[in-house]
Amino acid sequence: MGWHMRTATPNGTRKRSGSRIFAVTAAGLMAAAALTGCTAQPPTSAQTPAASAPSAHSGTTSNGTAEAKKIARIAADSMDTYHLRSVEVEVTRGNTVVYSGALGQSLSGEKATTDMHFRNGAFAFTYIATLALVMVDKHKLSLDDTVATYLPSVAHGDQVTVKQLLNMTSGYTDYVYSKPVLDMNNTDPFHQWTTDQLIDIGATPPLEFAPGTNWGYSHTNYMILGKLLPKVTGMPLAASLEKYVLKPMQLTQTTSAQTAAMPSPVMHTYSSERREALGISPDTPFYEETTYWDPSWTLPAGATESTTVADLAASMEAVARGTILSKASHHAQTDDLLSGFGHKDPACAQCGQNTDQHNYGLGLVNQKQWVTQTMNFSGHGASAGALGSQKLSIAVSTTYAPAAFDETGAYHNASDKIFATLADALAPGTGPTAPTPH
Q: Which domains are present in the chain?
């Protein structure tokens, strides 16, 4: 989601009715199933980082350096500060893995490890945007092409360009906040949506603003891209992402699935976010497993992916360096082209202004000198970014203990705060403002 969440508070608190895979707050830009009353004990910050899995980078993990010890302290402190169930951190400089470690637990009694797979949410937006730019480099697509050129049946497609889908200036409403999607996510989180269903919900209503006249985060844009790009590549979306993006970036642990399945080992996730929707009183323990809730509402078919913390770091480094794009396409994706653009609009809850501190590129967020992406849904958060000038990349993944959820079931995305703290510690002044210690 974008800067202004319909059901999010200004400080970024997250509720199920405002589920999001892109978790940038206003200040930052950014069941039916078996319910459990058990509350696992949160792991403590005194735990030792689990053994590191092989990194997506070449090079050797160097957890003994002074810099690595600083990272380890920040990770350990975050466990108590943010009431985490687990935290994974990967930090690299060039081909050297500075730190790769995990704290906490996945299943109760099972140590978290850095080779565990989890959903990557909006990071797939970055990969979809990169795929579109690869097609531009191959002269198969123009950013100025209209949606109607490829998908004549999509509403308003004759007014909206590919670039406007990519940079969130199309005006399409966000289907995530529609009543059918909100209700289904709360009553049956295992429901499987189709891409066409979600496009119809998001694209059929009147545009929230004339294309190109405002900025408003909307998942509908990338649902449409997920259907448009196969028309360009001549391949299913999953196959084209694998061929043109994931394989060239050497993301060996990032895969798509047509179901909620993920490769083993899996990072299990838990949440209390449905408490209010299900009418569960604040004094009743409520903490349910969300690992296999269906993610089809988040991304187009073929782009619902799972990944590892090392792959997140590697992918953002590749994007920041432009390793698989032409120079022109790299600049189109990562340059600050929207600072000062966009404005709040009472009729558009997702609309807001880009700034020189936080601005949207093509499928990513520029935070000062960092190229970043973040996600947060179903009790799991992840943030990653790269500082090209220092060949530095950071990735953080978080799951949450019961104490992280308030009496309504809402919670904060801690991964972006930990990312900001790490960026400030390793490259002061180059990235998002680190949270003030309490």
A: 16-426 (3.40.710.10)
Locate 383 and state its tokens.
């943030």
**CA-to-CA separations, 226 to 222, 233, 250, 299, in angstroms, rounded:** 6, 11, 22, 8
Average pLDDT, the chain: 88
Residue 263: Cβ within 10 Å count: 15
pLDDT at 207 over 70: yes
DSSP-based three-state secondary structure for 144? coil
Residue carrying the six token digits 């199309």: 170
- Stronger pLDDT, 414 or 431, i.e. the higher one: 414
Q: Which ranges constitute the DSSP H helices of 82-158?
A: 123-137
φ/ψ of residue 148, rounded to 5: -60, -25
Could you give the CA distance from residue 57 to residue 371 in angstroms, rounded to a whole number?
18
Residues 6+ apart with CB under 8 A from 96: 57, 59, 60, 62
Could you give the residue ranges of the DSSP H alpha helices within 234-372?
Answer: 237-241, 309-321, 327-334
Q: In terms of C-beta density within 10 A (0-12 exposed, 13-18 middle, 19 or more buried), how is residue 234 classed?
A: exposed
pTM of model > 0.85: yes
User: Percent of the chain, pLDDT > 70?
Assistant: 85
59 pLDDT above the threshold of 90: no
Judge contact between 359 and 382, C-beta under 8 A: no
CA atoms of 94 and 41, how far apart (whole Å): 38
The backbone region for 139, taken as left when phi is positive above 0, alpha when psi lies in -120 to 50, beta otherwise, is: left
What is the average per-residue pLDDT within 146-155? 98
